[in-house]
Design brief:
419 residues, alpha/beta, Rossmann fold, 4 domains, six-stranded mixed beta sheet, 14 helices, 13 strands, GTP-bd
Length: 419
């Protein structure tokens, strides 16, 4: 059973119905079969029951009659609310946060993703440990009369806190190692794919980079690990394209924090490709969710190209024309069918070109290492011979210029020492 709460005018019943559609997709991804749904109109959330007491009793009868063994709420429940509802329903109760954590736990493949998910789960679990030990007795009395249940809870909390501390240290070590491994990427423009979960980011990654091997499936959170591949635009114009974890409405803050190192790819990118599922009826709200999440993780720039994907799933040509008129700067594609991908490549190339700088350099013909480096890492526009010197006009990305300047400086210092 899926349960949502409508509080008009802020959250209308129609909105909650759409939210429960997404919750059903989440439940299906986690392996649950949705039997029924329930929406209650309620202005104020009950601190003890979340729903009204009468609604809880009504749902209890439905749960018993339909032999439902799992109830999922679209909002996050407090430990007290979850405990009371499980007693009333006599079955397992999950909230949206716990369901998403379950999906992440199943989807995590790499050791880093598994540690990030475990950390988020433990931080969620810590204030809810009393639910796990209700079968143990708690003796009444004064000093020195703690019951075994209370002692067990304290012991378990200490173990959980210790595990959280260990995981944070390990993830910090992985982040440092990742920084070292990616230092050689600093000279290459970086582009990150962002978007709502199941918008088609991994499919687009595979379409643009055929050897990417990104896992793509019509499921929420199919990709949790960041995958980076080189995308060749034209001669000596290459970008590093990164596929990142998808966002979702009410993405648990714990997951955002725990996946901070993974989301660093988004922060370090020169610009972003915001992939939007054009065929989704609620894509505008999804766009707002992604924008808010980007702000939450620290993205402050406006270097974002909006890409409407799945245009082949839009049957009404008028709807597609309307979309183009409302978002004239956006690019409409179909990653699955390869429609309009050249336009996307040109847009990325044009965006990258803004950060290229043109320079002229005079070097001795014997300095072939530097000349070879320019041909390999820059776009050579002109080359002419003047006596024993070579005058090269080249264009390079601003990220690559510091490395070129360092090599020129080292060459000048070497020549000075010889002199």
């Amino acid at each position: 059973m899926l349960v949502g709460v409508s509080s008009s005018p802020e959250t209308t019943r129609k909105m909650v119905e759409e939210y429960l559609e997404e919750l059903a997709f989440l439940a299906d991804t986690a392996g649950a079969e949705v039997v029924t749904r329930s929406i209650q109109e309620r202005k104020v959330i009950d601190p003890a029951w979340f729903l009204g007491k009468g609604k809880v009793e009504e749902l209890g009868h439905i749960i018993e009659g339909a032999e439902i063994d799992l109830v999922i709420f679209d909002e996050e429940l407090s430990p007290v609310q979850a405990r009371n509802l499980e007693k009333a329903f006599e079955c397992k109760v999950l909230d949206r946060t716990e369901l998403i954590l379950q999906i992440f736990a199943v989807r995590a493949k790499s050791s880093q993703a598994k540690m990030q998910v475990e950390l988020a789960q433990l931080e969620y679990l810590l204030p809810r440990l009393t639910r796990l030990w209700t079968h143990l007795s708690k003796q009444k009395g004064g000093i020195g009369t703690k019951g075994p249940g209370e002692t067990q809870i304290e012991t378990d909390r200490r173990l959980v806190r210790n595990r959280i501390s260990i995981l944070k240290k390990k993830l910090a070590g992985i982040a440092r190692q990742h920084d070292i491994q990616t230092r050689d990427r600093q000279g290459t423009p970086r582009v990150a794919l962002v978007g709502y979960t199941n918008a088609g980011k991994s499919t687009l990654m595979n379409a643009l980079c055929p050897n990417a091997g990104a896992y793509a499936e019509d499921r929420l959170f199919a990709t949790l690990d960041t995958r980076t591949r080189r995308l060749q635009l034209k001669l000596n114009k290459t970008v590093l394209l990164s596929d990142t974890v998808g966002f979702i409405r009410k993405l648990p803050h714990r997951l955002v924090e725990c996946f901070r190192s993974t989301l660093d790819e988004v922060l370090q990118a020169d610009f972003l490709l915001h992939i939007i599922d054009a065929s989704h009826p609620g894509f505008e709200e999804q766009v707002q969710v992604v924008r808010q999440t980007l702000q939450e993780i620290g993205v402050r720039h406006a270097n974002i190209i909006e890409v409407f994907n799945k245009i082949d799933a839009i049957e009404d040509p008028a709807a597609l024309r309307s979309l183009s008129l409302r978002y004239p700067e956006a690019i409409c594609i179909s990653a699955a069918r390869g429609l309009n991908l050249n336009a996307l490549r040109h847009a990325v190339s044009d965006y990258v070109a803004r950060d290229y700088r043109e320079r002229t350099l005079r070097v001795h013909v014997a300095d072939y290492h530097l000349i070879s480096y320019l041909y390999e890492h820059a776009e050579v526009l002109d080359r002419r011979q003047e006596d024993e010197d070579v005058v090269i006009t080249y264009r390079a990305h601003q990220n690559r210029l510091p490395d070129i300047d360092t090599r020129i400086k080292a060459l000048d210092e070497g020549a000075s020492n010889v002199a």
